[in-house]
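I'll show one example:
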Amino acid sequence: MTCSSNDDALHACALQYRGRFQASARRVLRDPAAAQDAVQDAMLSAVRNLPRFRGDSQMSTWLGRIVINQAITRRRAMNRRPEWPLETFFAQPEARRREIASLARTEPGPERALLQREIRELLRAAIDDLSNPYRTVVVMRHFEGASIGEIAERLGITSNAAKLRLLRAHRSLRRLLAARGYAQPIAA
């Protein structure tokens, strides 16, 4: 694909799937305004990284992954630095204001942050090594928040087949993680 055709494909895909991207971001963030911002940031990121699109997957899958990653990043930032309306803050007693202010400054220590990053990288690499059908159901269920029924409908399979595929994907993921030396459940 030439760069010009990639630009056209990106534009067409963004228009065609914008509702799905919005819904995915809303499921992660649970805030329509934040979801809209996440989708917009994801599209900007996609435009900047379009030359890196290899074509190994469909453009919609690539864009969807960028949207989900952006929404997750935004959710983490929101959890680390929750926003408080000033009116709510000043309506609190002084002791409570000091407590809220100290909570806003609290961040995970460097060891915890490093461990979480290593676990995320390990999990991301293992997911990338899953076969395409397994990777698809894992991403749809755990990153897009799709229900078993939605997965079945989108893949054109029965709900039982979707459950079975997800179960097998989890087992395969456990084996891949064990082969990488991580045999305990990941809780990060």
